[in-house]
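Bug report

Summary: structure tokens for Glycosyltransferase differ between web form and batch submission.
Environment: batch mode, default settings.
Steps: 1) Submit the sequence below via batch. 2) Compare with the web form result.

Sequence submitted:
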Amino acid sequence: MNAPILITVYDRLESLNKCIKSIIRCPESLSSTLYIASDAPYKPEDTEKVSMIRDYIRSIKGFQKVVLLDSKVNIGSYNNLHSNMKYILNIHDNVIFIEDDNVVNDNFLSFMNGSLAAYKNDGKIKFVCSYLFPDCAPKSKHDIFLWSGFSPWGFATWRESWKEINFDNDSLYEKNHSIKNALKLWFIDPSSLGVLMEDIQGKVKATDVRICYNLILLSGYSVFPKRCVSVNRGHDGNGEHKSNNDIYIKQKLSAINPIIQSNLTVEKRIAIYMFFHRLNLKNIYHLIKFLIIDVKARVLAR
């Protein structure tokens, strides 16, 4: 039985349409239930856009079932994801999540469903991710590998794995704070430490960084393909975070159909690729700033 698919959306109709069209090209879509969580307007001027989104969702064909989860009040992207993940995982054993600005290849559902079935009893595997950052593909003879990182741009998980993740940033960071854990996070992805500090300060709600931090604490892993089966097309300046980055806009979507195998290995080289790909002066600054703040806090606590 195929896992249900969840997409969260606000007001980007064109992006959602491209996402849906790409998923429909997967043969498994016809036997899959699609949930689309539509958040309510944040501003009055967004009402028409949200209404058009919901009308479009009601017209979608190509799936076994399409379920519109329409919020009556605006809850924001973080709560739109988490409340509906909880809802779906109360009904189903697993779920596949894809952002509304992601595009997938024809083998996306095959890879995600196959991995969910193959690794459901492997306690160290918590997530299946479909996206890999540009220029970070490991030179491996296998199509898939394990890594202690995480990508939100297409992922799947199981009910029990999701329950293991502590998303409360106060208890997550305060009870488990250490320079060792922060350095581990920085070496997984140098850009994440700056987001971590903003998350601790309450400036953002960073699901991906919280998951990465949990994976460190749990000694857990995510399954990744060595080439992307999904890409993010939302870095055009129109998304929630208004980013505009040609690296992601121009990233090619591979046609890979990853062969799922047992006895997966931890790809240590990916850590090196990721580290140098994401390393820059800004991320070094965040590391130094974090260490200074930590030292000051320890001195004042004496």
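Above is the batch result. After comparison, the two runs are identical; trailing whitespace caused the diff. The chain has one domain: 5-301. The chain has twelve helices and ten strands.
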